[in-house]
Specification:
Layout: H1 2-15, E1 23-32, E2 45-59, E3 76-81, E4 94-97, E5 100-109, E6 115-122
Antiparallel strand pairs: 1-2, 2-3, 3-6, 4-5, 5-6
């Protein structure tokens, strides 16, 4: 109940007061499955998936005390409410934004299960 109320207020703020800090993204990826083909060195493609979302995508890790193990100085920190994303992000996904493509290198979730924090690296 309270989680839904907070998420609706954040969505409202994204539309109005925080609109200048919010960026949108899309992700399109292939789904692989089946037996590995040694001749082509690939797995067969069985479909594709796409999702989109919005959040504060280009934050900084510079002031954080805890940084991901594979952190690089130019990495960006994305804070994305889970109700603002149409699917669960995965490590390796490439988010297409107005600033270009960014690969998801790390994902964590807050204790309430309402926010994704993602480490993004320019591709």
């Amino acid at each position: 109940m309270i989680k839904n109320k907070i998420q609706s207020k954040v969505a409202k703020a994204f539309d109005k007061k925080l609109a200048d800090a919010v960026d949108t993204f899309t992700c399109e990826k292939l789904i692989y499955s089946g037996e590995f083909d040694f001749e082509t060195q690939t797995y067969p493609v069985v479909g594709d998936e796409s999702y989109s979302g919005r959040g504060v995508l280009f934050g900084s890790y510079q002031k954080d005390l805890v940084k991901p193990a594979d952190y690089q100085a130019e990495d960006a920190k994305a804070v994305v409410p889970q109700n603002e994303v149409t699917a669960v992000p995965q490590i390796g996904d490439v988010w297409v934004t107005a600033k270009g493509g960014f690969e998801v290198k790390n994902i964590s979730q807050d204790p309430t299960g309402s926010i994704w924090t993602c480490q993004l690296r320019k591709v």
